[in-house]
Amino acid sequence: MAGKSRFTPEQKATVYTALLASDGNVKRVARETGLSTTTVRRWKEEFAENPPAPEVMAVASAEWLDDAKRVRSKAVLEIERQIDAREMKGAALVTTVGVLDDKIMRVEGVTSKHRVDHVHHLPTADEARELLGGLLQGAIESGRVRQAELIDAEIVEQAEFTALPSPSSS
Predict the structure, then answer these.
(1) Alpha-carbon distance 143 to 132, whole Å?
(2) Which among 31, 45, 34 has a CA at the least distance from the CA of 7?
(3) Which residues are CB-neighbours of 96 under 8 A, at least 6 positions away?
(4) 11-63 pLDDT per residue, tens
């Protein structure tokens, strides 16, 4: 029987789902599933080349999502109970809800066609130079406009000041 796995494809798909939800954290998944870290690490390496079949993954991820959503709902109810009882010591519960929410979104993102990946690009050195040059030119021009306004304001103030009658002439 050497070489024959004692685990079903469904069990492996459950571990794959847990790895997705835990961002590949082998130790966490081993703790959650009761498997050895060696087994989880080996499967993770296998999954890189040969992930579970989509139909098996659909069932495993749906079961995992159901469990995670159920636990998240219980945590939210417990937070609410603690708030109502004015005994909110819920930092751990809030963290639990946040972590479960994050994991649920990861698994849902992988199992749905609506996954969105955000990619950020910094400008090239030339683009940055051009952008900063434009910003600098705009600042210089704004300074010139403001300087002209200040000079006009001084001229107006001086003209009004000289137009006032002196106190001795009254």
Answers:
(1) 16
(2) 34
(3) 71, 72, 75
(4) 899 899 888 888 889 999 999 889 999 999 999 998 888 888 888 888 888 88
